[in-house]
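From the pipeline queue, job 12 of 40. The input is one protein chain; the requested action is below.

Action: predict structure.
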Amino acid sequence: MNLDKHSRTIPLHCPTCAGTTFKSESPESLSVICTGCERVISKDELCRENEENVQEHLGEIKKEISKAVADDMRKRLQKAFRGSKGFKLK
């Protein structure tokens, strides 16, 4: 089963202007600058401010993956017991 199709990028929003583009002076920098309102915010604070959005996406991903796993298991069991006269799967 390929779980790569369930991979997604979750955009983080600026708590001030709801912008989604940020710039950083360097990759090691602990803060970013919103390109919309030029607010300087730490990466940790940005993650905390977007926690609800991240949790919502996580819930959606969990539902999609559990459905995909159940479908995959059903298909594998049907294939394994195909042609069996005493065992049927729905």
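Job complete. The mean pLDDT is 88.
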